[in-house]
Automatic annotation (TrEMBL):
Predominant localisation class: membrane
Location of the protein in the cell: Cell membrane; Membrane
Species assigned in the record: Nonomuraea rosea
Phylogenetic placement of the source organism: Bacteria, Bacillati, Actinomycetota, Actinomycetes, Streptosporangiales
Name this protein carries in UniProt: Na+/H+ antiporter subunit D
Record keywords: Cell membrane, Membrane, Transmembrane, Transmembrane helix
Transmembrane spans: 6-25, 32-55, 81-102, 114-132, 138-158, 170-191, 211-231, 243-264, 276-297, 304-325, 331-352, 373-391, 411-431, 470-490
Keyword Glycosyltransferase: no
PANTHER family in the cross-refs: NA(+)_H(+) ANTIPORTER SUBUNIT D1, NADH DEHYDROGENASE
Domain of life: Bacteria
Residue ranges constituting the NADH:quinone oxidoreductase/Mrp antiporter transmembrane domain according to the UniProt record: 134-426
């Protein structure tokens, strides 16, 4: 096996091996546990960068698990799309782990069963990597289940009533999605005799249109639940805000994007230009508007960000629905941008909650004076999320707007208009949050104490702030700088997104790499 191809499985195997080591160590040597996590994620990031450069230079890299060739065996495929999102997810998870170590999550209740934050986190990371690299539908299902097992532990970490309730809701939705996925797998295998993506790309061409449509709709529904596409998004704002800040951040940044990634991969490889494109456009329109209107109505920072997360999924679905290279490139660029920005915003919100004890904007105020660094760290990604030029959020939206106008037609143009309205309302929502929580004056007698506003009618009149570990803002600053670097590197990044989209639409490079060029 060529050396580069032997690296493809490492982003999946390394976190799982580290999990085994950490479980063997148990509650002892907690500092060593943190070091193992950070080193593992750092190595995974380096490997991901190497794979991205190799895939962009030489084409897709394939590893056949167990030595069984596709379509009999299961393949892991590293192409431009999978390696690009893998690099970003590796960078984000490293920063989130650094944040969690600094926030002492690994030291809280270390003698209790809940002291498995790091192993659960690494299992979830392995599931994300497996989903991105999977070249087989059944292995993709396994990756989703791996995600669920790790994410449920993270969501319910601490065992509070609200977290258990949110975890139950999240698990029920995930299980419903998994059941739909299994049904789609059964139909697909019965109709084609294979679950290899590359093999399916060839065999679907010979299937009756009704069978293809049934499979496509079932898979789309399963992935739409995971991606929180409206109207399958009601579970998200009630589930994510209850989790610890590192878990919420990685959920918001990554887990919904795994669903979006699956939709991009399958729509481009298995169902290019199918009749479902119109349905996807309507779903994108509804997701944008429903999410952003929900965000505008919120008075809690976490819930506001959860609703903006839903609304901006609509941009990515819009790019996929266009079924053009330009649309897919815009969707890929926006996925990369949104993973980083949304994660940093939730981490900053976690810093606010740790310092003040609340994320209600009716109780916060004066944080710009008390904590100027936190204020800046929230403001910059918030403006990036809103699409203020020349940040990456603006560039991603510009790519999608140009793709929509180039496609023409009433529905794409309507989606372009909806995207602009969503961007403006996002700006309003985050500006209102920043203005009330950070900018407005309070009745505090001293800097560092946050007093309730006149809107708040609760019994506790004062929220006293506490200090933060230095590494917390360092981890968030790294993510904010990474997101800003997308503006500086907009040319190479958009070029890579264009090449990834072209490779997806061509389909032949992926199929040939998996099945062999002499098939």
């Amino acid at each position: 096996m060529p050396p580069l191809e032997s690296l493809v499985c490492l982003p999946v195997l390394l976190p799982l091996l580290a999990t085994g080591v950490k479980l063997a160590i148990g509650g002892r040597l907690r500092r060593l546990q943190s070091v193992i996590s950070l080193v593992t994620l750092a190595i995974s990031l380096v490997v991901s960068v190497v794979l991205m450069i190799a895939a962009d230079t030489h084409g897709p890299l394939v590893t056949e698990l167990g030595g069984w060739p596709s379509p009999i065996g299961i393949s892991l495929v590293a192409d431009r799309l999978s390696t690009l999102v893998l690099v970003i997810s590796s960078a984000v998870t490293f920063c989130v782990m650094l944040y969690s170590v600094a926030n002492s999550y690994d030291e809280q209740e270390h003698d209790a069963p809940m002291a498995i934050f790091h192993p659960a986190f690494l299992v979830m990371v392995a599931g994300v990597a497996d989903a991105f690299l999977s070249g087989d539908l059944f292995n993709l299902f396994v990756a989703f289940e791996l995600l669920l097992s790790g994410s449920y532990v993270l969501l319910t970490f601490g065992g509070t009533e609200s977290r258990i309730r949110a975890g139950a809701t999240y698990t029920l939705m995930a299980l419903a999605s998994s059941m739909l996925f299994l049904i789609a797998l059964a139909i697909t295998y019965a109709a084609t005799g294979t679950l290899s993506l590359a093999h399916l790309a060839e065999r679907f061409a010979t299937l009756p249109e009704q069978v293809k449509l049934l499979v496509e709709l079932t898979l789309l529904l399963a992935f739409a639940i995971k991606a929180a596409i409206f109207p399958m998004s009601a579970w998200l704002p009630d589930s994510y805000p209850t989790a610890p800040a590192p878990a919420t951040a990685v959920f918001a940044g990554l887990l919904t994007k795994v669903g979006v990634y699956a939709i991009i991969r399958l729509e481009a490889l298995l169902f290019p230009g199918g009749p479902v494109s119109t349905l996807l456009m309507w779903l994108a329109l509804a997701t944008m508007l429903a999410g952003v209107l929900g965000a505008v109505a919120q008075t809690d920072m976490k819930r506001m960000l959860s609703f903006t997360l839903v609304s901006h999924i609509g941009y990515m679905v819009f790019g996929v629905a266009l079924s053009t290279v330009a649309g897919l490139a815009g969707a890929i660029f926006y996925v990369v941008h949104h993973i980083t920005v949304q994660t940093s915003l939730f981490l900053v919100t976690g810093m606010v909650e740790r310092r003040t004890g609340t994320t209600s904007i009716t109780r916060l105020g004066g944080l710009m004076k008390a904590t100027p660094l936190i204020a800046v760290l929230f403001f910059v990604p918030a403006m990036n999320l809103s699409g203020i030029p020349p940040m990456s959020g603006f560039l991603g939206k510009l790519m999608l707007v140009q793709a929509g106008l180039a496609a023409g037609g009433p529905l794409p143009v309507t989606l372009v208009a909806a995207g602009l309205v969503t961007s403006l309302l996002t700006l309003y929502a985050v500006a209102k949050t920043w203005g009330k929580a950070f900018w407005r004056e309070t009745r505090a007698d001293r800097v560092g104490t946050v007093v309730e506003s006149e809107e708040y009618t609760g019994e506790d009149p004062t929220v006293t702030t506490t200090s933060l570990p230095v590494a917390l803002p360092v981890a968030v600053t790294a993510l904010v700088v990474l997101a800003l670097s997308f503006t500086v590197l907009a040319g190479p990044l958009s070029g890579l997104a264009q090449r990834a989209a072209g490779e997806l639409m061509a389909r032949e490079p992926y199929i040939s790499a998996v099945l062999g060029r002499d098939r």
